């Protein structure tokens, strides 16, 4: 793990690190309480499509988990995102969405990539890569004394669920997860995704938007149904894909406290 | 308002009162912080079918609102319930359900009244009476200096929604409500119920059980859809009618704090 930069502000130490996973460099952020020196509950945050490891909502949530709960939080750039963008069209979408958000756009709508078959295949392939990376990232995180053996939670909606749900299903170190803004459909790769959902056993908080322009209500209900965990709940709000109210961050916190405990 | 009994324990003053509404005596409980002497946010609690104003979950929630938030809480016996039971069959159902609960039954199942046409008509008529009573009860509560002009929230699921939803829709003094365990169907009286749901404008937190033996998933989703409020959310858990996890009381609290404020 190469530490690229480290800063501390308002009690939160923020490290920009590079992790090596096979041939890939995975850029990541690690947030910990200032002076943290022992293992603690840690939330891995998987950003959404066109976002990255320092998207405003990722950073805001990570700092909250550190300041309110004394947890650690970790975010990576998913394949093809953030510092790993290689496709100019993705860069343009990322710019558009960030611009709309910073301009105070509250429509809840998101600019998304083309959905032609080739683009979809590339997306599925990137998601599979992202799923594999998380376990390798976690292997390296447990070596940090201020993270250690956790326990670990995962937070990721939309693409963060496409990538994170199979990761949570496969890696028994994750003991609770917030997922959402995703569904079961007939898209490529969805059979394996459904199988992963059915194999989940850890507590799941599933967030969904009732007027999501990217997926049908039924696909979301089907995914919630498929989730195998006995302890699961689905929280539905009206509005578009990125319209989940910010106050639900309180809900994520109480969910993690219930399952990962306090420091 | 006749005060029948008053006790104080652990900082919570509990009054058993009789209110007069037309020809009816409405027995009620009022919980306030010990020594409370000014207006404060107040939650009106409508119990479920076969329950009453001092059912264990009603009392537990009321005391929480007082101890955690400094709020007042009020519960009444709905028509035909609690001290107002006139039907021996209802008394037997109430006994059965309480017994199962006290014995630690976690099946989430509830013994319910017969659903023959005459019994259904009587239930609808009792619910209408209960709806009217709440506004008359509130008229009397605002006279208490320790409650005053609130603001007021409502909490009631199952029969507490059958009775409470039309009350919340009709009485503009209620500015936020937790509803749930109810749906839109073709039962008698459902047209007016749907109209009331569509006319709602205040924030609504709608709780639902995904395997509710008393109503279909679709009826619950239809009721959530019908609710006219812009600020609404639906929280779904697996399990039967009375299986909502107790930890969701934290959610009710944060909902009321958001909308009724703090003391």
Distinctive features:
homodimer, 263 residues, alpha/beta, Rossmann fold, 9-stranded mixed sheet
Describe the structure.
2 copies of one chain form a homodimer. Chain A is an alpha/beta fold and 263 residues long. Chain A has one domain (2-260): 3-Layer(aba) Sandwich (Rossmann fold). Helix content of chain A is 37%, strand content 23%. Chain A has 7 helices and 9 strands. Chain A has helices at 56-69, 88-102, 117-141, 159-170, 190-199, 217-226, 249-260, and strands at residues 2-9, 12-21, 24-33, 42-45, 72-76, 152-155, 174-180, 204-209, 232-237. The first copy, chain A, has a 9-stranded mixed β-sheet with strand order 1-2-3-5-4-6-7-8-9, sandwiched between helices. In chain A, β6, α4 (159-170) and β7 (174-180) form a beta-alpha-beta unit. The longest helix of chain A has 25 residues, at 117-141. Chain A is globular. The two termini of chain A are 25 Å apart. The mean pLDDT of chain A is 93. The interface between A and B is medium-sized, with 19 and 19 residues. β9 of chain A pairs antiparallel with β9 of chain B.
């Amino acid at each position: 793990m190469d530490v690229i930069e480290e800063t501390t502000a308002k009690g939160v130490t923020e490290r920009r690190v590079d992790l090596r996973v096979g041939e890939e460099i995975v850029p990541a952020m690690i947030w910990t309480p200032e002076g943290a020196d022992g293992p603690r509950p840690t939330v891995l945050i998987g950003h959404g499509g066109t976002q990255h490891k320092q998207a405003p909502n990722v950073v805001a949530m990570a700092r909250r988990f550190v300041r309110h709960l004394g947890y650690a939080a970790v975010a990576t750039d998913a394949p093809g995102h953030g510092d790993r963008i290689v496709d100019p069209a993705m860069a343009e979408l990322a710019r558009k969405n960030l611009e709309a958000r910073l301009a105070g756009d509250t429509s809840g709508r998101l600019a998304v990539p083309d959905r032609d078959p080739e683009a979809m295949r590339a997306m599925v392939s990137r998601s599979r890569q992202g799923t594999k990376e998380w376990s390798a990232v976690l292997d390296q995180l447990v070596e940090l004394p201020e993270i250690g053996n956790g326990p670990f939670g995962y937070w990721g909606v939309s693409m963060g669920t496409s990538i994170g749900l199979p990761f949570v299903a496969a890696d028994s170190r994750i003991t609770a997860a917030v997922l959402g803004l995703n569904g079961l459909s007939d898209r490529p790769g969805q059979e394996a995704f459904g199988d992963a959902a059915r194999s989940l056993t850890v507590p799941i908080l599933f967030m969904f938007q009732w007027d999501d322009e990217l997926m049908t209500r039924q696909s979301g209900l089907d995914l919630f149904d498929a989730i195998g965990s006995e302890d699961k709940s689905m929280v539905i709000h009206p509005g578009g894909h990125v319209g989940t109210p910010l106050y639900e961050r309180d809900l994520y916190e109480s969910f993690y406290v219930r399952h990962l405990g306090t420091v």
